[in-house]
Amino acid sequence: MNISQILFWILTVLALGSALGVVLSKNPVYSVLCLIVTFFAISGHYILLNAQFLAIVNIIVYAGAIMVLFLFVIMLMNLNAEVEPQKSKILKFAGFIAGLCLFLVIVAALKNAEAKTQAAQLASGDIGLIKNLGTALFNDYVLPFEISSVLFLSAMVGAVVIGKKE
Amino acid sequence: MVLLSFDWFLIIEKAILISIVIVASLVIAMYETWGERKVAAFIQDRIGPDRAGFGGILQPLADGMKLFMKEEIIPNSSNKFLFVMGPGLAMLTAMMTSAVIPWGGHLEIMGRTVPLQIADINIGILYVFGVVSLGVYGVMIGGWASNNKFSLMAALRGASQMISYELAMGLSLIALLMLTGTLSLRTIVEQQSTGHWNIWYQPLGFIIFFVCALAECNRTPFDLPEAESELNFGYHQEYSSMKLGFYLFAEYVNMFISCVIMATLFFGGYDIPFVNDAHLYEIWGNWAALAQVVMLMAKVIFGIFVFMWIRWTVPRFRYDQLMNLGWKGLIPLALANMVITAVVALLKYNNWHF
Amino acid sequence: MQSLTNRVKPVDRKPMTFLEKIYLWEIAKGMMITIKHFFRRKPTIKYPEEKREFSSVFRGLHILNRDEQGRERCTACGLCAVACPAEAITMEAAERKKGEEHLYREEKYAARYEINMLRCIFCGLCEEACPKDAIYLSQTFTPSNLTRAQFIYKKDDLLIPDPNKDPELYAKALGDRKKPQ
């Protein structure tokens, strides 16, 4: 067991535990905070894979921006456990069945995953470093990259238009 | 035990460095409170605290003691866990940034080269930026957990202010990064070591960054989150004792760190102006590294003084003025700065013919 | 509306010029002003160590004076109490016994002499009224106490130290204030 393995297990437990916390906690603010912890744990995994850029962008975009907006909304809505709508029995049952189906699909998908033994390279691959990532994005994938930026622009314009409407 | 086959020297070295950096930033933050009161007093034709020790030099200790001794009040209707977590988060995010800052060159100890930097990661600035974007949580969680309308309003104000100014800050940094071509703070400092400080190439970027740094630290003229006269006391209204102290303290740590970042990015970091640092290393050895640290601190202290100077000069912005300045003023300006820088950089890259 | 004074200044509501809109120039001007104040000499007087110069007619706390031989001058005539507009002074007279000549100058003296410092307005009428030059307003000030009762100064609090035994304290209590003629 070397230090990256230790870190891997710590991060994994943290990620899974806080992900469970997102689903299980009654208080929505706690859910958001657990989600933030999950993002951190996943960023830790990225760093272990030497994908530093991905790790920090994950934190900036998700933990630093999107989750703040979530928190904004939840804090202003003042959700309490009492006002949570009671779901009917049938809905719960349907959810249970759907969850089982998803589980089956995942098992089926992972059954053959063993064959691909190309495990992630710990701290050796350097595709996640910002220079290589930039080269890849702006050479091989320049068109998809630009198209996605146009998508974002249109989303922004749309938001402005909706906001302008009296 | 295979488990223990780490590079122990490295771990000890980093542990010592981390503790020095943390203690130093806390002490400096402590003396910032003293400095703030002194600067305020001098600007207002007073002399400020001068009773505790010579020139009031022990005043921060007295203040800290007072805060520790005060009664701690946790409101009944508050969310206790988050209420306690708020100041902790504020302090944590304030301190975390110091990990990537190069405090000086390197020391030679027992044949090992010890760089005066906790972690030289290749995404240095982005890390700073990420941690800064997390600074919102301390404010928001504290304000919400107090279960007080005024705190919540102040927290929302503070959070929206921080988010708004982060954008302009990021854009002004992008222009800078186009010139440096790297994100590692140490490399950026080394590029500036011949007197080519980035501020000469990015004056507009520097002004934008500086204004945004003021806003991120909740300093006047952007101290709306703690607008005493409008929102009672701001997001930390329900806080007392050292929890309040942590919030106030985090602000000063933030101020210190943002001054360090500013000095590193725009003023050559630990580089000693008009002196060839590499030459200095040959003559002085380890003392040269120390001189560099002192130089960085001198730059930082001047920056902190300017922060305070502004605070005691400029009145607070109104909220709509703040948002207008952020979204309609700084962001377009930063974008223009970015485009111009990109054009110039591209032309230069192609030897001035397109 | 007609203005009451000629100092009325209408509020300037012109739209901001470009220079004002970018704030920076105005802020720089403001900062120049504050930095000037930063280096200005501070008018602060560090009180317990330094003291402000008193006016020669400053009226502070009262003292009951003694003569050159250290005898109390007060004869308990009550003129000060009558003169007092705030009715802060009360006293009780007593007759001097044999063998007390070194204590009291006159045959009658004040056995009890009280001034309520919370009522006193420090007008100085008592010292003007005193025929024996006994009551004086000194340059001592800023008394502080925890209870109101302690602000009623007894004779012990008011009496000046003996000039023969304690010339230094005597001079200090007297101050260099000129008594109005």
Largest interface summary:
A-B, 24 and 28 residues
Which strand-content bin applies to the residues of chain B? under 5%
Q: By helix and strand content of chain A, what is the structural category? A: mainly alpha
Strand order of the largest sheet of chain B: 1-2
Please indicate the count of domains of chain A.
Answer: 3
Describe the sheet with the most strands of chain A.
none
The CATH architecture assignment of the largest domain in chain A turns out to be: Up-down Bundle
The fold-level CATH name of the largest domain in chain A is Four Helix Bundle (Hemerythrin (Met), subunit A)
CATH class of the largest domain in chain A: Mainly Alpha
Oligomeric state of the chains present here: heterotrimer
Question: What do you see in this structure?
Answer:
Chain A: InterPro entries: NADH_UbQ/plastoQ_OxRdtase_su6. Chain A: Its EC number is 7.1.1.-. The complex is a heterotrimer of chains A (166), B (354) and C (181). Chain A has six helices and no strands. Chain A has helices spanning 3-24, 28-48, 52-77, 89-111, 130-139, 142-164. Chain A folds into three domains: 1-81, Up-down Bundle (Four Helix Bundle (Hemerythrin (Met), subunit A)), CATH 1.20.120; 88-117; 126-166. The model of chain B has no long low-confidence stretch (mean pLDDT 85). Chain B contains twelve helices and two strands, in the order αααββααααααααα. Helix content of chain B is 66%, strand content 2%. Chain B has a two-stranded antiparallel ribbon with strand order 1-2. With 181 residues, chain C is α+β, with helices and mostly antiparallel strands. The longest helix of chain C is centred in the first third of the chain and has 15 residues, at 24-38. At the A-B interface, helix 2 and helix 3 of A face helix 4 and helix 5 of B.
Search tags:
heterotrimer; A: 166 residues; mainly alpha; Four Helix Bundle (Hemerythrin (Met), subunit A); 75% helix; globular; C: 181 residues; alpha+beta; Alpha-Beta Plaits; 3-stranded antiparallel beta sheet; two-stranded antiparallel ribbon; 5 strands; 23% helix
Q: How are the secondary structure elements laid out?
A:
The complex is a heterotrimer of chains A (166), B (354) and C (181).
Chain A: H1 3-24, H2 28-48, H3 52-77, H4 89-111, H5 130-139, H6 142-164
Chain B: H1 8-43, H2 59-69, H3 80-96, E1 106-109, E2 112-115, H4 124-145, H5 149-180, H6 185-191, H7 198-201, H8 203-216, H9 241-266, H10 277-284, H11 286-311, H12 319-349
Antiparallel strand pairs in B: 1-2
Chain C: H1 18-21, H2 24-38, E1 62-64, H3 79-83, E2 89-95, E3 108-116, H4 125-129, E4 135-137, E5 152-153, H5 155-158, H6 167-174
Antiparallel strand pairs in C: 1-4, 2-3, 3-5
